[in-house]
Design a protein that fits this description.
Elements lengths: L10 E5 L3 H13 L5 E5 L2 H9 L11 E5 L8 H10 L7 E6 L4 H9 L4 E4 L8 H13 L6
Parallel strand pairs: 1-2, 1-3, 3-4, 4-5
Helix pairs in contact: 2-3
Protein name: Response regulator
InterPro entries: CheY-like_superfamily, Sig_transdc_resp-reg_receiver, TCS_response_regulator
Keywords: Phosphoprotein
């Protein structure tokens, strides 16, 4: 794909402790020609530091969206969701869950925390092609909040 399909104004924060998944998403972004800023966090604690501007070397700008794994050390995805939704500055963050969990209880719990979508890593295809298509469609269709 030669056309840029995500605005370079959008930043994507990928919160995942799986290096293979992170590399897969980053590779998919490059292969699909997505022109967006990418930042990564290894767990919910690091993601909160980035979002709150307290991380020593990583930062994020608005508008942004978050791709969130659920199963991580220190602070898992659900703890992160609860912290974000309780934070007046972050509560309107657009968050998509990207996980290996097929549990109905996990999906229902994530939607109760107002996620924009729940995606299974196994269902988004090689090089995360379906995820890239979703990000493209989403970015073309909505105006993301800014802080």
């Amino acid at each position: 794909m030669t056309n840029a399909i995500l605005s370079s104004d959008i930043t994507v924060l990928l919160v995942d402790d799986d290096d293979v998944a992170i590399e897969g998403v980053l590779r998919g972004v490059r292969r699909q020609g997505l022109e967006c800023k990418m930042e990564t966090a290894c767990d919910g604690l690091e993601a909160l530091q980035i979002l709150r501007g307290t991380h020593e070397s990583k930062s994020i700008t608005s508008p942004f969206l978050i791709l969130l794994d659920l199963n991580m050390p220190r602070m898992d995805g659900f703890q992160f969701l609860e912290a974000v939704r309780a934070d007046n500055q972050l509560r309107n963050s657009v968050i998509f869950v990207l996980t290996t969990s097929a549990r109905d209880a996990d999906r229902m719990r994530a939607y109760e925390e107002n996620v924009a979508g729940y995606m299974m890593k196994s269902a988004v295809g090689p090089q995360f092609v379906k995820l890239m298509a979703l990000l493209h469609s989403y970015a073309q269709s909505v105006v993301l909040p800014t802080r």
